[in-house]
Protein: Ion transport domain-containing protein
Organism: Esox lucius
Amino acid sequence: MEVAWSDESHFLIHHVRVRHLPGEHMNLDLAAVYVSDAQYNRKIVFDTSPQAIRLYLLYNHWGMQFLVYAFIVIDLALAIFEDPAVIPLPIWATTMIEIVCLSAFGFRLVHYAKVIPLERFWKDPKNICIIVIILLSLVDIIIYWLLKAIGLFAVRWSRVLRPLLLVNITEGRQLRRALRSIRNALPQILCVFLLFMFSVFMFSLLALKLFVKRGLTTTDGDAYFTSYLEIVFDLYVLVTTANSPDVMMPAYNSSVFFALFFFIYILINTYIFNSVFLAIVYNNYKKYLKQEVRQLVKVKRHKMVQAFELLQEKKGEETVVTQASWNQLVRLVQPDISNAHRELLWSVSDNSKKGCIGKGAFVQLPDLLNMQVTIEKAEQPPLQTLLPPLYLSIPSRLVCRMVRHRLFVYTYDLITLVNAVFICLDEENLLIANTEWVFLALYLLEILLKLYTFKPRTFFSRHKFWNCRQILDIVFILRIVRLIRVVDRIKRSGVQGRIFSVVYYVFAMVGMELFKGKIHFFDVKSTHPDKAFCGNPLLKNSSFAKHNYCKNNFNNVISSFILLLELTVVNQCGFTAVTHVSARIFFVLFHIVIVIIIINIFIAFVLEAFFVEYTMEKSDLQSSLEKKIKELELGIKQYVSDNFAARLALNLF
Amino acid sequence: MEVAWSDESHFLIHHVRVRHLPGEHMNLDLAAVYVSDAQYNRKIVFDTSPQAIRLYLLYNHWGMQFLVYAFIVIDLALAIFEDPAVIPLPIWATTMIEIVCLSAFGFRLVHYAKVIPLERFWKDPKNICIIVIILLSLVDIIIYWLLKAIGLFAVRWSRVLRPLLLVNITEGRQLRRALRSIRNALPQILCVFLLFMFSVFMFSLLALKLFVKRGLTTTDGDAYFTSYLEIVFDLYVLVTTANSPDVMMPAYNSSVFFALFFFIYILINTYIFNSVFLAIVYNNYKKYLKQEVRQLVKVKRHKMVQAFELLQEKKGEETVVTQASWNQLVRLVQPDISNAHRELLWSVSDNSKKGCIGKGAFVQLPDLLNMQVTIEKAEQPPLQTLLPPLYLSIPSRLVCRMVRHRLFVYTYDLITLVNAVFICLDEENLLIANTEWVFLALYLLEILLKLYTFKPRTFFSRHKFWNCRQILDIVFILRIVRLIRVVDRIKRSGVQGRIFSVVYYVFAMVGMELFKGKIHFFDVKSTHPDKAFCGNPLLKNSSFAKHNYCKNNFNNVISSFILLLELTVVNQCGFTAVTHVSARIFFVLFHIVIVIIIINIFIAFVLEAFFVEYTMEKSDLQSSLEKKIKELELGIKQYVSDNFAARLALNLF
């Protein structure tokens, strides 16, 4: 049910009817594009000829964007089918698909070149990047086939470049921003990293002097801390806490005082340096966020001023935009907006009810459009709508009162508790296993009763995550609902995930070329004689094979990703046993990129999201919108979105 | 050489000579106490009778404070000599020492009771705490001796209370503040922790349903993921990353898709929750820091206003403090202040040279006294002072020019690099081993040449850490000198370390009572038959014994501390194998307290120290001091300390 305006004409009194000449139509179209750009923070400067505008609209169409992402996903997914493959496909097939993808990216780029001025196109590094990536991929394909044809060994090295497409497409704005903030932090990180490595080298030197002459041995009987580079590597791994306390035990067993050495080492290199890395990343992240927001607000304002100038009319001294043009504009920009919502936004903009607004009020339009106002329909429980007499009968009312009663909630809390106890009990007992069905039935009953009693909207709330509140009631943690919003926000902003994907993909590609086939996994039931050492004699009696880590290999893209995930959590590099020791560089590099930079970015993001949720106030614009809603007594229950500026800032990343 | 004032009488023109009546003397003394309290942020409200003031001065005397700390250290160190002992002493000896310590604390408390009003004494919870600790310790000693006398088993349970003395003595202000900030964060932490545990329980339930019927086994052949509580514990440990990837391997070996389960689990419970815990602690830490600073500034101002009212004189309309009283006051508060320094501070306070200052300027005194102004003596290289003709001769000048030259620095950088390469080379080679002496000689030469050329102060700078700059020159990282100040600050503020000590001590005491003697360490050369399983048959074939972790035990206070340190870095709990499974609660508790709370406080502290160093500006007062120094052209090179407000805030913790 739409909110009915008591007197629609009330808003039309001041309307100045303007006849629409063809040129005006075009102006309106162009203004709509500007507003839309401002709304979605697009910074593209496009040609303003009618044809270019049409192309530009097509370029920004969600279908085209979807296609681009689809082709990128297909291109990246090729790693599943290419050698070393999870599901092998013939090489000609994967090559064909890749060429199709590359042409799609080419077409998209040509489209972009038609939309924006040509000199701008060639100045933009991201376009150059895409061209280079496409060309290099083609060159790689040709070289690969040529080498294959004459029977030589060939490597598809251009696969490393594929994730860069995700960064360089027009839609990769967020990702580029995140990477730029990382780049800005790099000089400082490098400085501290050098200091950190210096500290590791000095401690290693000290360790060499302390231990080399003592002839200590590890539990495997190997010499302990005798080669300088070995010590450096071991102590570097200790920073990741992966080999604690093993690396310390031989020294500690020989004397208690050596524990002091490791204690100081861990304090400085694990705790202090890690915190400083976090501080640097966080500091830069915040600084950069502010800069970006400032710049975005500028671009947004500029776009809106352009839109204003297209629609402005003289009214006495002032230049204004009339409600009529404003209405047309909003309908163009957001065709699905309801009349009530649109009138509400107008009444916020035109606070003094003049029938027209100046530049200051006009530029707020994208922010107003971005605010989510949900119009609550005066809902009733479904049964009440269908069979009112039955629903309002005395037994039905009793049921409703029961469900609304506190005791109902407590009863179900108790049931859940009993269920929890039953779950912890013996699984094998048939009787206990069957109680599960009873509990399931009870929960079903609860849902049905609640659906019967409450309005559907109360039951199914807007954010899907809110439904979890139902479960949380059980543990009485209503205070943390805000926290759930933080987590929700983290999930909605996919940038962190995309950065991880880009880095993982690159390392997976390189890792697969370097380490594929070195380690074999044999099925649990297999009785192959090589099973005990993962199919590689070098791993005989190694702890890697003993722990049955054979499936942690680079033999295909999926196991590579899982291995890299494990490396993210805990550094664990049995690979150096089966290849050259220099392979350790690969693992150390991965650790530096992931743990020192990317994870800290992630933590910084969570910290910032948390602080925004817990400390910021509502923006002026938002409160004026809320005030207006109250003033008008529209019966509209607003779910006004979070703090505008902070939300804007976070959505950037 | 003191800076000579051109005309000392210049400052004396406005002096109003005041004859000192006995009452005035007393006022001055009292005012000095107030200023001193304001300077060191003491909040004690004391009696103002002359006798009480004298007692109060004695109470704050550094010697008394030193004695208190000495007795606390002795009391805490008793754990080394008490059973289970590192160095066993007879029980009567340790008991005697403990009684001496307890009486010292008692005397200190009586002293405090004489200083402050009695009703305040009994209202203060920290006094009650100390009394209770002393009484409980005495009761414990008596019970222990009685039980021993009749031959029963006895536990010295009051040892757990000892570190609480460190918190409750008057000097433990910083520690109390830190603990209060933790307490303030607790409700929020608890909420999130409940949510976290809820998530762990739900994931465990999912894991049970997923794996229980598959009959998977670990590498040791044990059943994998069959008991609910086992799963909960394993997944909890996975949050600490200690058992990654072992806990995942059986599932991953059986199917790739199970890796997804662990991936989602680690993402949510390790990364997101850990970041949220950090965010909560950091947020509360900042909020609390602000509150504390605000309150401290208020107390400080109040003390200074009291001092002002004691010294004020009428001068026309205004009440002022004359330079004469001010001088006497400053001399009383800081007897070792130089005349030049004192005159400088006065000229900052009395900016308009009236010869007296109002309340506004007077209350700044403690801040001015806290600013470090180092008067640089016009130093010369020592040889120049001793033998000027020789030092100024042409060859000597040539040497000096050489040392000052850039090439000299570069040469030594090169030497260091060569040295680094040599260090990495084979240790066994005698020739290479002997080159070390050459390098040592070269470094010694460098130091001597620099001592010859530069002023001593240039060489030995004030902060001991600054000397490291010499080393850092080598790696060209001058930009991070600020960072060193951050680390320096972390080191100077010992609160973090003291919090760690308190928590470690409590857990070590409990751990020793619970687990002492369960595991035995045999010397490397020992051939005892029980060596293979750490002297406990329950550990036969366990990975704990295989890795030779036997020295990680609770058999004395030192090995307990080292074990707790290891637990801080990586959770590693073989103890549950030799005692009841419920011992796991001990380890989980320790993990919650240390990793979730204390380490996050530490990180928050580093973050804040970093931000203060990198973002804050100098305070007004500080810049006016610097301006004055420039104005007066005193030839005083100031090492004005860091931002006052921020420094104040950080020194609180």
